[in-house]
Amino acid sequence: MDIADGLLHGFYVALQPTNIFWCFVGCLLGTVVGILPGLGPAATISLLLPLTFSMDPAGGVIMMAGIYYGAKYGGSTTSILLNIPGESSSVVTCLDGYQMARKGRAGAALGIAAIASFVAGTVGIVLLTLVAPPVAAFALRFSSPEYFALMVLGLALVVLLSGPSLIKGLLALLVGLWLTSIGTDIFTAQARFIFGQAPLLGGIEFMVVAIGVFALAEVMANIDGGEESQMLPVPRGLRNLLPTWEDLKACRFAFLNGSVVGFLIGVLPGAGGTIASFISYGLEKAVSRHPEKFGTGVPEGVAAPEGANNADTGGALVPLLTLGIPGGSSTAILLAALIIWGIRPGPLMMQESPDVFWGLVASMYIGNVMLLVLNLPLVPLFAQLLRLPTYILHPFIFGISIVGVYGVTGRLFDTALLAGFGLLGYIMTKLKYPTAPLILGFVLGDSMERALRQSLMMSQGDLTMLVQRPISAVMLALAALVLILPLLSYFNRARVRALAGG
Amino acid sequence: MKRRSLLAGAAALAVSAAFAPALAQFTPTQPIELVVHGGPGSGNDVMARQMVTIMEQEKLLPVRVQVANKTGGGSTTAAAYMASKKGDPNTIAIYTVVWVVDPLTQEAAQNRLTDLTPITRLVTEPALAVVKADSPYKTMGDFLKVAKDKPGTLKQSGGSITSRDNIVRQLLMKQTGGNWAFISFPGGGERIAALLGGHVDLMIMDPSEAGEQVKAGKLRVIAQIGDSRLDAFKDVATLTEQGFKIPDVPQTRGIVGPPGMPADAVAYYEGVLDKLRQTAGWKKFLAESQLQNVNEKSVQTRTFLTAYEEQLRGILKEAGAKVVR
Hints:
The complex is a heterodimer of chains A (about 500) and B (about 325).
Chain A (H helix, E strand, L loop, with lengths): L2 H12 L2 H19 L5 H12 L4 H26 L8 H12 L3 H35 L3 H13 L1 H4 L4 H15 L2 E2 L6 E2 L13 H19 L20 H6 L1 H16 L5 H15 L11 H25 L5 H12 L8 H4 L1 H22 L2 H6 L6 H20 L2 H19 L5 H23 L6 H4 L1 H32 L1
Antiparallel strand pairs in A: 1-2
Chain B lengths: L1 H18 L12 E5 L6 H15 L7 E5 L6 H9 L6 E6 L1 H8 L11 E9 L2 E5 L7 H10 L5 E4 L5 H13 L4 E4 L3 H9 L5 E4 L1 H9 L3 E6 L26 E7 L5 H16 L1 H10 L2 E5 L1 H22 L6
Parallel strand pairs in B: 1-2, 1-3, 6-7, 6-8
Antiparallel strand pairs in B: 3-10, 4-10, 4-11, 5-8, 5-9
Helix pairs in contact in B: 6-11
């Protein structure tokens, strides 16, 4: 069955009224789950799994996948409105999204996020449809040295995320790198930096750090700044709540960047949506004509990471469906569900279960349209949330943050940690340390250390392996470029100044 | 019809009345909590939810069962939670080998599985030694020969160094004098990707993971780790058959109660789980996940786990892990 026939057959399956219904249910649930911090798609799919055993496999997987990609749409909502990342992959959206909201452009940011999600999500599925098998083969050429290089490239972005002081950015990055090393080391089975606390054996949950240093710290800084009675501006009139034509024009490249970066990184089983969103944001800033405005609320700063995060879905399904390899917790449970239904994802799935394979792919085209239609009307509604006076909004954010963290881990210990990270974030804000590099280090550090140690074990301690392999060499060169370019422009400016002075 | 059931009811009443003084019968009256140490979507979580679904469909219990994910520190958080429920007949947990390993290697993991009340052993997970389809190694012997002739050049992908993958490697290296690297990957997907991409030479893998790849001609099985051949891989010899007799280290899962769980509650759960084993749904789940059924009551399970802990302690020391208990 070639691609056109397959897709046609897929639409035949996906357009059955019951399957359209399940697709809608999945997308709706996904949106809700994405908006609520603390209830992730993996947990939701797992909870609903027993209910779907009696369903037809195609309908079941269409619904489960709907929850998975639907959650990515919803994840940006709390990031933009409240600076609370609903899912780990929407942390980067906070950087510019929340700043837009503070300027009274919450509606525009939410709209941009929805449109970027739709565009990149659809591009991701188109790529999944057209190039899945060759891309899967490419992904297999990635191993530990390549992952190490990718993480180094990611960490090099610190120069772009640091703001005015690179030193402060690097210090924050180091704290993030240290925090991520807490817990049991997989290579030696030894615990590091746990201070006798058993709950730390498994390491610190990402959401605890992110919600602490972003949401709680922001609220504390606001209270401290004497803004108690000041409300965030929300313009009146529907038109002012939606993105403008200029916003969309500014995001042209971001849509493309998010789509491609998100898909390519999504394909790699050892990477994931959070890394994709960071790299896409970094790339957007690196090529921007006004990089200094990033972090103050530019629409492309929302579009790039949100797009990457959604194109990642199409990418992540490539190794799952064509190789039977799950890249993250959500795809792992999709795999478990498929196996329980008697379907084995892998090289033979396209031939053995064309209904499920192509039905799923086709349903994702439909699902993305549904999500756009579902989400855009919600934009003005959600933007109204910021009309709440701060004496209600601030406790509300505190409440959601604590419930969200408890929902993820189910441990009171983590709510105490959350308070600690809130305080850390507050102190950093007061001393003008950027918090984004800390999160960057926390996300990438663990994978980077692991990939380096794996590489050294593979090469019997030979570091040159990292530059001998072409893909990793190219990425390391890119990382060096990212680090050196700002220096060059600095010297250049100094030279121009000297010439002008002379 | 009516009279007969009435009669039967009366007889049952009489029987239970006669036995009541001898043995207090535990029947749950409040929802049962089924604790899992993995997060939603992990292997144990899926197994727990499958169990709950079957129990509800077959009405094996008069009350509802709720799955509680107590994640963190491998099994540590879940084991500590169980220890805190001392004597409670309404809380049970799914344990795995990790529950034995964690207290052995982690100072902070203070609750050993044998300190709790083991109720039963449910399944063992068989394993296969797998190479890439275009690999030069056709049998375990081929691989081990190169491992001996060119020590340190071959690589195996796997999980933590305390996992069975590494234990089997240690035992084989000790027996044959060969040596190869063990590279830890936290995610199962990354391990297979490393093998499929040709970045490592060997992996010890679940049959359910290997099946489809073998069928598609991407991977080849060179040995079975367990004592007997699996139905799905009838033509592949076991390690013992190939002349490499190493101690069996079964990957196993079962049900455990809190410390000091009353004997009647233990007996009650033993009975319920026996009924579960008989259901078509459970048999189907085991077949599809390629798990092997184990029938063991509480007493045998405790004996098994005690001996197993002792065996693991020795093997882990040899594997270079720090053993603290």
